[in-house]
Amino acid sequence: MPKVSEQWIAPLMLLPFIENAFKHGPSQVMEHPWISLTLLVSNNELSMKMINGKPATTNGQLSGIGIANVRKRLELLYPGQHELVINDEEEMYIVNLKIALATGRVEATKTAHNGNNKELQLPHR
């Protein structure tokens, strides 16, 4: 079992994907709802694959506010150090995310501003 205690990811970065999987999967599918989540940490990279079933009649809701916010957070916190691919298949959504992880405890911060002119404290890379 590899030791991953020295690798860090921004808090709650994966939660919106898990929420969406339940929102657009089991809560919408009456017969045989399912979700598959695979997380792998290798060579300072986190790989996540989230797959969830969906009802046959959906309108391809890939551009919701939650996913848009995650994309912005990824660009802000992991510029050039992440890859996010979301596929809307006939019977399922597939999310593939790769993030280069920070190593060691992150103490220093830098300040950024979001669209509402609020300061955000971000870890230095």
Tag the structure with descriptive keywords.
125 residues, elongated, 2 helices, alpha+beta
Structural account:
By secondary structure, the protein is α+β, with helices and mostly antiparallel strands. Helices cover 18% and strands 38% of the residues. The chain contains two helices and eight strands. A four-stranded antiparallel sheet has the order 2-3-5-4, covered by helices on one side. A two-stranded antiparallel sheet has the order 1-6. A two-stranded antiparallel ribbon has the order 7-8. A hairpin with a 2-residue loop joins strand 2 (35-42) and strand 3 (45-53). The longest helix has 13 residues, at 65-77. Mean pLDDT is 78; it is low at 106-114.
